[in-house]
Amino acid sequence: MNKVEIYDPAMCCSTGVCGPGVDPELLRVSAMLNVLAGEGKTIVRYGLSENPMAFVMSKAVNDIILNDGVEALPVTVVDGEIRKKGAYPSNTELAKWSGMTEDQLESLISKAQKPVAQ
């Protein structure tokens, strides 16, 4: 399995989906990570406020912050390689980078689009 790590900017909590003004992009990422976790995938998120040592310990992420500033966050690293900076990965990118095949991805998208029975 691929190791996917997301380095988040400083936020009010570990997911950034708290408080009265929830960012829809953070909500999308959080929801997708929950779906992927349900499929047995693991994506690690590090928050600058909560896990500052993770930023220091990753030379690649530390270099980005030193050169571009914290404005370059979020940064996504897959198997030690920077894949995206300055924006969160799309749902497709997250699924592919976590080791899903196209068929698994299509199934996942179909499941996510079905309305939940109440």
UniProtKB/TrEMBL annotation:
<dbReference type="GO" id="GO:0045892">
    <property type="term" value="P:negative regulation of DNA-templated transcription"/>
</dbReference>
<protein>
    <submittedName>
        <fullName>Arsenic resistance operon repressor</fullName>
    </submittedName>
</protein>
<dbReference type="Pfam" id="PF06953">
    <property type="entry name" value="ArsD"/>
</dbReference>
<dbReference type="GO" id="GO:0003677">
    <property type="term" value="F:DNA binding"/>
</dbReference>
<dbReference type="InterPro" id="IPR010712">
    <property type="entry name" value="Arsenical-R_ArsD"/>
</dbReference>
<dbReference type="GO" id="GO:0046685">
    <property type="term" value="P:response to arsenic-containing substance"/>
</dbReference>
